[in-house]
Amino acid sequence: MIADPAPPLSPFVLTRPRFERVGALLTLLGIMLSFFGLSWDIQWHADVGPDTFWTLPHLFVYSGSTLTGLACLTVSLISSSRFRTHADPSWIPVLGGRFHAPTGFVITGLGALSFLLFGLFDQWWHTKYGFDVTLNSPPHIGLLVSLLACMGGTTLMFVQGQRIRPLEFSVSVAVSLGFALPVLTFLLLEMHQNVQFVVFPVLFFSVAMLLVAAVTRTVWWVLAMTLVFAAFRTFHWYGIPLFDQLYAHSLGYEVRPDARGFAYIPFLMPMFAPLAGLTVSAVLAGWQKLGWHAATGAATAAGLAAPLLYLDGSTVHLAQTPALIPLLMVLGAAFGWVGWQLGTVLRPRRTVPDGLQASSGQ
């Protein structure tokens, strides 16, 4: 068992204001809309090509970011108006203390604002230089970094200063992982950098799986997170090419003859991620029964699961490069340990010691 003693939280923090939860869910919905639009937009550029700023994929991208920004702004204004009578220690001052808001909403709100500004930059860029088909243009880099900030802030909304909600937190981690892993890999691929083939899946998955375990202290939420990730992958794998073709035909366009016929973003999302999640959950459950140190178990579990992310061959064919397996295990163990430590820091302080539970908790 892993003791986690802490001073009590105030009743206000434990119950969490309803407006915060609604705002966090709307923010997560906005992130998912932007994720879908971005995946579709990349597919559209690759398979069709003709483009304007007001395409349907772009509308999904920018409507999602707008929803995210408005939700964060609304929560920030409500929390600022309540600060004098219902001050929450997790709220931080903004603009010299004129406003107060939860940390996650501040980060995500600034990310959404930055995203919309980079969207204007992207429109100017296309007006001046034409509609490119590359992902690594200056405005696109800014858009991607802004989305990463939004996703990181959204994840914080479900852990800072309140009772943990494992389902919402696990979904937010799965969505963030579903965006960061394939998009950054695709970006480096366009830059002709091959290091992402080995490092990125192990880095992101090891950190994400052990982050969920450390925050929720319920190991099977790791498996749940990877199942959500797999559901996103499946939806985009089958849905994006279909939407692409239907939309192209509605505009009188044809899919390019050299189109590869598969969805680019889901291709870079490991197919057997749930197998890695099951392995980590099972190892940590057994580790907890032995009463050994949790961080060591986290590193061991991540190391054992790391090679499983490559079984589908979408990134590395392990059968052709068996020497990579020890390297993947070492990287997975290192990043898994980092993920556990990060989750321990993010986890709200509790009054009752609790361990790493193999059954349903919280």
From TrEMBL:
The chain crosses the membrane at residues 22-40, 60-78, 99-121, 141-159, 171-189, 195-213, 220-243, 263-285, 292-311, 323-340. The keyword Membrane applies. Keywords: Membrane, Transmembrane, Transmembrane helix. The keyword Aminoacyl-tRNA synthetase does not apply. It comes from the Bacteria. This is Uncharacterized protein. It comes from Deinococcus ruber. The lineage of its organism: Bacteria, Thermotogati, Deinococcota, Deinococci, Deinococcales.
